[in-house]
Design a protein that fits this description.
By secondary structure, the protein is α+β, with helices and mostly antiparallel strands. It is built from 3 helices and 6 strands, in the order αββββββαα. The chain has helices at 15-32, 118-135, 144-148; strands at 43-52, 59-68, 79-83, 89-93, 103-104, 110-111. Strands 1-2 form a two-stranded antiparallel ribbon. A hairpin with a 6-residue loop joins strand 1 (43-52) and strand 2.
Length: 149
């Protein structure tokens, strides 16, 4: 007895072929994604589940197409851990290569190791220096007023 053949391109009014093409496009995009490992394997699984009726002359077919993609690679960074003026432990992302190293931002501005513009850091230090001098705790040799005291 000759078995009838099924044209997979036309099966379920073309829905099977359409879903396979969608899954393949997902795989292509995952392969092209620079954040994934290009050598890892991807998978497209086509599942067809057939359930016959009591007379065994008709079968219902459920079609499912699943993809298994490669996840994006993990990304690392460094956090500088220190204490603030109130004595609380704080952390901030290290943007330069090492703590204390200044760098040039993408905007061309000189920034400290956590990306804060240097002129803002200097303003904070100036305010702190003045406060400490007023309290008599520190003699700042960098300012003209402290040299006269």
């Amino acid at each position: 007895m000759s078995q009838p053949k099924i044209n997979l391109n036309e099966f379920a009014n073309g829905a099977l072929a359409e879903r396979v093409n969608i899954a393949m496009n997902e795989v292509y995009a995952n392969i092209a994604d620079q954040n994934t490992d290009p050598t890892k394997k991807r998978k497209v699984v086509i599942t067809m589940v057939l359930s016959a009726d009591e007379e065994r002359d008709l079968a219902m077919v459920d079609i499912e197409v699943k993809t298994t993609l490669t996840p994006a690679r993990s990304v690392g960074s460094k956090i500088i851990i220190d204490t603030n003026a109130a004595g609380q432990v704080v952390g901030q992302e290290l943007k330069s290569g090492s703590p204390g190293q200044m760098m040039i931002s993408p905007d061309g501005e000189i920034v400290n190791d956590v990306g804060t513009p240097i002129d803002m850091v200097e303003q904070v230090h100036e305010l702190t220096d003045v406060k400490l001098i007023q309290n008599g705790n520190v003699i700042d040799l960098r300012t003209p007023s402290s040299a006269q005291q």
